[in-house]
TrEMBL record:
Belongs to the binding-protein-dependent transport system permease family. It is a multi-pass membrane protein. Gene3D superfamilies: MetI-like (1.10.3720.10). GO terms for molecular function: dipeptide transmembrane transporter activity. This is Peptide ABC transporter. It is found in: Cell membrane. Keywords: Cell membrane, Membrane, Transmembrane, Transmembrane helix, Transport. Pfam families: BPD_transp_1, BPD_transp_1_N. Residues 95-300 form the ABC transmembrane type-1 domain. InterPro entries: BPD_transp_1_N (IPR045621), MetI-like (IPR000515), MetI-like_sf (IPR035906). One of its GO terms (cellular component) is plasma membrane. The chain crosses the membrane at residues 95-120, 141-161, 173-197, 235-257, 285-307. Signal peptide: none annotated.
Length: 314
């Protein structure tokens, strides 16, 4: 088990290092001068040069890269060119929206998908299976932003049950904040639930063909007991893989949904930073999201060892 964890930690560290090199290199080759962006087109050459020196833009690339990595290790992501505040403050301000939204969406996805996938696997080749997988196929095909617009029209405009957009802040109370996140969470969760349900069904069908399942059935155990108590646990490894990927997607890939619902989250922050050419914000947020993806994948790898005892013996 220790060797397994050490191997996964080494892979995670190498992934972070490679990602930091790629992000830094890609943003460095983008044309544009951050100093001129901050001071404007009418800035004098002396003022531009002084600001470049202050920001370290004239330092050699290896020095800038090492300073950037060292700063991130100390949670110093630099200072935003546009907002003139530390990037970490912008991240903290926005992540209190994006993280709960991703967690709620993921919880909804799992709650919907695993029972639906198990239901379809239990009725393989019958009407229930076809109906469930047909609904899942529809969920995969429908773009989440279009589904979000339908939800806004139905629940916000017509029924007036929830707000159509915006976020009042957690200081307004837990329930008003959750109401503002409910429709975006549903819009994000249903397409992901459709994917997860199909994976769950496929994994369960494969597991149900194993010898131990046939032995349990031969001993007289009901099919539902065999499915939920024995087959499902052994089918969880591909399901956990998709769940980990979905959390990473839900945290990092909400730009469209956050703009549809006017949510001040990380996705919208990245979009605004790109349009304003605030590269230091883009670098910081992207690396934070990469670190989150690596951390989630590491936790998924640990969950593999919990689910599959064979990995604990390595």
């Amino acid at each position: 088990m220790i060797a397994y964890l050490a191997q996964r930690l080494l892979v995670a560290a190498a992934t972070l290092l490679a990602a930091s090199l790629v992000v830094f290199a890609m943003l460095e080759v983008i044309p544009g001068d951050p100093a001129r962006l901050m001071l404007g087109m009418n800035a004098t050459p002396d003022a531009l040069e002084a600001l470049r020196n202050e920001m370290g833009l004239n330092d050699p690339l290896p020095v800038r890269y090492l300073d950037w990595v060292a700063g991130m290790a100390a949670l110093d992501f630099g200072r935003s060119y546009t907002y003139s505040v530390p990037v970490i403050d912008l991240i903290v301000e926005r992540i209190v929206v994006s993280l709960p939204l991703a967690l709620i969406s993921l919880a909804l996805s799992v709650v919907i998908a695993i029972p639906a996938g198990a239901f379809a696997a239990q009725r393989r080749g019958r009407a229930g299976d076809a109906l469930s997988m047909g609904a899942a196929q529809l969920g995969v095909a429908i773009p989440n932003f279009w589904f979000a617009l339908l939800l806004i029209y139905l629940f916000a405009v017509w029924l007036r049950l929830v707000p159509a957009g915006g976020f009042p802040g957690w200081s307004a109370g837990i329930w008003p904040a959750l109401k503002a996140l409910l429709l975006p969470a549903v819009a994000l969760a249903l397409p992901q639930a459709a994917i997860l349900a199909r994976v769950t069904r496929s994994a369960l069908i494969e597991t149900l063909g194993e010898d131990y399942v046939r032995t349990a059935r031969a001993k007289g155990l009901p099919f539902g007991t065999v499915l939920w108590r024995h087959a499902l646990r052994n089918a969880l490894i591909p399901v956990l893989t998709i769940v980990g990927l979905q959390f990473s997607f839900l945290l990092a890939g909400t730009i469209i949904i956050e703009n549809v619902f006017y949510l001040p989250g990380l996705g919208r922050l990245v979009f605004q930073a790109i349009t304003q050419r605030d590269l230091i914000v883009v670098e910081g947020v992207v690396m934070l999201l990469v670190a989150t993806v690596v951390a989630v994948n590491f936790l998924v790898d640990i969950s593999y060892a919990v689910v599959d005892p064979r990995l604990r013996a390595r």
